[in-house]
From TrEMBL:
Residue ranges of every copy of the SGTA homodimerisation domain listed in the record: 23-81
Pro residues bias spans: 330-339
Chain intervals for the UniProt region annotation (Disordered): 306-339
Keywords: Repeat, TPR repeat
Name of this chain's protein: SGTA homodimerisation domain-containing protein
Pfam families: SGTA_dimer, TPR_1
Keyword Repeat: yes
Similarity field: Belongs to the SGT family.
Signal peptide stretch: none
Per-repeat ranges for TPR: 172-205
Length: 339
């Protein structure tokens, strides 16, 4: 079971991250590797900045604290990886599989297929893993993607399809399976693009045609459900999160004033036409999203707006930041504890 906490000033419980101590220690080891790489000047300034963001995200996602860094691995994580999975010394890539490797990999693939028919999807994944270890055949990745789809692990399925296509760009089944995974995530625009790619390679494949039509019909439904031109594009989002906004929370801006800001609304309307952001906000407005989804959507939207209209962002900071007209100001800083 997960522990539940309440965000300050809110009655909505937020589930604590589901994480084990071993997982935390693994992440600490990985973050130590990243920090050493940056401190040894083995990253460009752009990489270093992106890695710092990644570190903060991982620390938050795995509930790491300063005390977590008391863990000291017996060996650096890169050394452990090299000893277990690294390429041979002096090689730039894994060696070409032998005929025996290929035969054994195909046998494992067939066993995985049998397990799929028996609805033993986790066991099938393990068979495909073993086959891929021996021979990186695109068919094995595509078959594993099918198992991941049955396990509802769609992101893993999509990545396997991408890997299969990196190995064989003409593999139409990988595009078709990717379309299925995207459809299961309600990402119909991506699904339609995948089915179109599959049809470019196999124009007469009826299943791709049928699935493309389904994805395009779903897209039309989503288009018709979008707010009308001129409507406040964020009103539905905040309504889905409970209506009233956050004006009663210390340090938070007056949401009614914020949503009435014409520059913000114009920029938001433009951003809502972005397929990636639009799909995310549609999920939120339909009640399918979580607080984490809302935060991710807000961060993406803020980043896009910062790129396209930095002057607007600066004006909003002045107006709605602490002490601004639209803000409510935060609580006074705590006094120093007695000595």
């Amino acid at each position: 079971m997960t522990e539940e906490t309440k965000a300050p000033g809110m009655d909505v419980p937020i589930a604590a991250p589901i994480v084990t101590t071993d997982e935390q220690n693994l992440v600490v080891s990985f973050l130590q590797f990243i920090r050493q790489k940056v401190s040894h000047n083995q990253a460009t300034p752009e990489q270093a900045e992106a890695l710092e963001v990644a570190i903060q995200c991982l620390e938050h996602s795995f509930a790491l604290t300063d005390a977590s860094y008391a863990f000291q691995p017996s060996r650096p994580i890169l050394e452990l990886f090299k000893s277990a999975e690294g390429v041979p010394e002096g090689e730039n890539s894994m060696p070409t599989p032998s005929e025996a490797d290929i035969a054994q990999a195909n046998k494992l693939k067939e066993e995985g297929n049998d397990l799929m028919k028996a609805s033993q999807f986790d066991a099938a994944v393990q068979k495909y893993n073993a086959a891929i270890k021996l021979n990186r055949d695109p068919v094995y990745f595509c078959n594993r993607a099918a198992a991941y789809c049955r396990l509802e692990q769609y992101d893993l399925a999509i990545q396997d399809c991408r890997t299969a296509l990196a190995l064989d760009a003409s593999y139409s089944k990988a595009w078709g399976r990717m379309g299925l995974a995207y459809s299961c995530q309600n990402r119909y625009e991506h699904a339609a693009e995948a089915y179109k790619k599959a049809l470019e390679l196999e124009p007469n494949q009826e299943s791709y045609k049928n699935n493309l039509k389904i994805a395009e019909d779903k897209l039309k439904e989503m288009e018709s459900a979008r707010p009308a031109q001129g409507a406040n594009p964020l009103a539905g989002l905040f309504g889905a999160m409970g209506g009233g906004g956050m004006g009663g929370m210390p340090g938070m801006p007056n949401m009614n004033a914020l949503l009435s800001e014409p520059g913000l609304m114009e920029a938001a309307s433009q951003l809502m036409n972005d397929p990636g952001l639009s799909g995310m906000f549609q999920n939120m407005m339909s009640g399918q999203g979580s607080i984490a989804d809302l935060m991710a959507a807000g961060q993406q939207m803020a980043a896009r707006m910062q790129e396209t209209n930095p002057e607007l962002i600066e004006n909003l900071r002045r107006q709605f930041g602490p002490g601004g007209e639209g803000g409510q100001g935060g609580p006074p800083p705590p006094s120093a504890p007695p000595q």
